[in-house]
Design brief:
Helices cover 32% and strands 23% of the residues. It is α/β, with parallel strands linked by helices. It folds into two domains: 117 residues, 3-Layer(aba) Sandwich (Rossmann fold), CATH 3.40.50.720; 183 residues, 2-Layer Sandwich (Dihydrodipicolinate Reductase, domain 2), CATH 3.30.360.10. The chain starts with a strand and ends with a helix. The model has no long low-confidence stretch (mean pLDDT 96).
Length: 338
């Protein structure tokens, strides 16, 4: 086996603690060496041998680090990824990779120039619900697709404390760049670049400077319409996935358990990790040759954020194509930016 990829994380807040450190620490293809913690030093309580740097500059200056996870606030992603690349590091950048298409293309160009990989962390491709939807679509059981609805709802009426998401003058702010990056990536990973799209945003929370609602309509060949919707004022989240085709319909709630399990301290190596509890199955309704309706309850696929880190390893060590491609991210930002 090739030597482990020595890795550092730019921030050990919620995302570093939940979405990155557990995978880097339990996968033998990586060595989690360092994090940045400007204030309270918490990482060592879980990872006793970890180095906790006081600044991003100190982290980037660590010559042993090959890979750096860029998980700082959205508006800093471009600046920090650029700095890490210029220091000769591979980068795994949390979504959104940048605020504009021009910025993200500059990062990919710089990566080629310094012979380092630029990878974007789109973990929602590996949610149990999305993996289930993907499997049903690819099975052909729905026939020719007619319409697809993906929703990601929350209820957060108060203005959040993370000002980089809430301030109107901050790049890559608001719900569109937050949950929109996930939904647009889901659509692009399945269907590619749309032929055309339109987008509606709205602001309903009192005092909000950024949109807290959006809806995209993406048009694809053969008249397929894909709708992507999210709201921060949905008291009862609506169905996360609906796919309608000429032969049937698939319906699945957004019930992935990975984030909650990781937050509670479960490791990705636990046999129960990523498995949705009974009662969260997707509903597949198909019409047979006799025109009779058949109902099938489809168990959710096992959630697989670890698969993303496997892809990072293969990209760095074997020069494999990272599944979230440059084109995918450029197309995503084209929709988010407009």
């Amino acid at each position: 086996m090739s030597k482990p990829i020595v890795t550092g994380i730019m921030a050990y807040g919620m995302s570093g603690r939940i979405f990155h450190a557990p995978f880097l620490a339990t996968n033998p293809a990586f060595k989690l060496k360092a994090v940045v913690e400007r204030h309270e030093k918490k990482a060592a309580k879980v990872y006793p041998e970890i180095i906790s740097y006081n600044s991003i500059d100190e982290l980037i200056a660590d010559d042993e680090l090959e890979l750096i996870v860029v998980n700082t606030p959205n508006y800093l992603h471009f600046e920090h990824a650029k700095k890490a690349l210029e220091a000769g590091k591979h980068v795994l950048i949390e979504k959104p990779a940048a605020a504009t298409v021009a910025e993200v293309l500059q990062l990919y160009d710089l990566g080629r120039e310094v012979n380092r990989h630029v990878m974007v962390y789109q973990n929602r491709r590996y949610d149990s619900g999305f993996l289930s939807v993907k499997e049903v679509i690819e099975s052909g059981k729905l026939g020719e697709l007619i319409e697809v609805h993906f929703r990601f709802d929350r209820y957060k009426a108060a203005i959040g404390p993370k000002l980089f998401k809430e301030k109107g003058d901050m790049p890559a702010n608001g719900l569109v760049y937050d949950l929109g990056a996930h939904l647009v990536d889901n659509a692009i990973s399945l269907f590619g670049r749309p032929l055309s799209f339109d987008k509606v945003t709205a602001t309903h929370r009192e005092g909000s400077e950024v949109p807290d609602y959006f809806s995209f309509r993406l048009s694809y060949p053969n008249q397929l319409q894909v709708y992507l919707t999210s709201s921060l004022l949905t008291a009862e989240p609506l169905t996360g996935f609906i796919v309608n085709g000429t032969l049937g319909t698939y319906i699945k709630n957004r019930t992935d358990v990975q984030e909650a399990q990781l937050d509670a301290g479960m490791l990705p190596t636990d046999p129960a990790y990523g498995i949705e509890p009974a009662g969260n199955e997707g509903k597949l309704v198909t019409i047979g040759p006799d025109n009779k309706k058949n109902v099938e309850w489809v168990p959710g696929k096992k959630g697989g954020y670890a698969l993303l880190f496997e892809a990072v390893h293969h990209t760095i060590r074997n020069n494999a194509l990272f599944p979230v491609t440059e084109e995918h991210i450029a197309w995503q930002l084209e929709l988010l930016e407009k």
